[in-house]
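[audit] Reproducing an earlier prediction to check determinism. Same input, same settings, fresh worker. If the tokens differ from the archived copy the diff job will pick it up downstream; this log only records the rerun itself.
[audit] input (412 residues):
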Amino acid sequence: MKFDIFFSICQTEIDGYMPSEKLMFEQFFDQLELADRLGFETAWVAETHLSCEVQKHNPDAVIPHFKGEIGLNTDLLQLTHLAMARTRRIALGSAIRNILCNGGPLAHAEAVKTFLTLHGLQPSERRRLHLGFAAGRFPFSNSPYGIRPRHELEEAAWPVLKGLIFLQATEIFLRALGKQPFSSRELRPLRLERRMFREPGQWEAVTAKREKQRDTAIDGGILVPPFWSFDRLGVIPFDAPLEFLQLVLGSHDPEVQILANQYFPCWVFNLSITPSSIIEATHQRMQKAYHPAGGPWHRSYMPRTSLIFINGDSHLSRNEQRARAKAAAQHALQNYWRAMEGTLDPKKVSEAVENAVYGNPEDVARQLTSKYHPDDRIMLWFDFNTHDNQAIKASMDAFWNQARPLLDRGAL
């Protein structure tokens, strides 16, 4: 297995305590520097846009009971310059960058190419940027930038149309990373078809709105005007060193995965809650679809998140370590679900604890062996719903120096 680490930088209230933004970032860099010394391969950092705390006071609040911010990092590119200056070997990755907001895919391509150009000016720095990209978790991060229904037809079709918009954004973003000029007229059209709508009556509701709009009906489908319309253009710097970039797609849509790999070798993000059938189907698909410039597809090209609650305190017995780790998992997950939903569902918490990895170092090594393939890449999540910097670092150390050697030796 390959071991990466995930950082949420989640500023939420825990047991009545809310750390400042400054302290959140200070603790992140402290933990990052330890991860670098220990030997984690890549630090994946959550990226969030616009305040959840402010948005929850709107009529369409998405997480009305959450206190604070889901994440404080709004731009991995800026953060990476400082992160690499403070570390020696660990790579940085976005988990994940929303290419719909903040100006859309062209703006993000320009920012990435500028980062790579500046990064490449440092002769002693050869680390790659692992750029995870997707459509964003919350609609309120996208709607201020025009990613919302423009009329009644699009409102009726929105559950399907928003996926097509990300498909088009992916094409724009990846083409803009290259050197060849293009215009929006050369993009794949946004085409709605009956087969895309699974709920009864959805397609009929969409077609009922068609007469009021100027959208073009063609071969039983509906063509939707592009959300980004532009004449022929090129995104500079043209000579950005793309060899320092590894793209990672945050979507399990087969069409988007295949499209992305027509332009660049593009890995696929995976969440730990994704059914194993989808995981294995993705691996099978990517063996054929992965861009040839990236070589053969490997299981480690699908980073997978795993919540880790480990106690390696040498003053405790193994049973005491296990009990304390499980208690930490229960407490963290209870706080999380209460914050997300406003209520506490004991069954949901129990299921979440069992989906996490917890216990003493031997327990953690054994559970990782049973849950994951030996060739998987795991993003270990230690800072979940806790602000205890010393406890987080102790967990990182216990995993690396106590659990990982057991995995490496197969001594279970």
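[audit] rerun output stored. Observation attached for the diff report: The chain has a mean pLDDT of 93.
[audit] end
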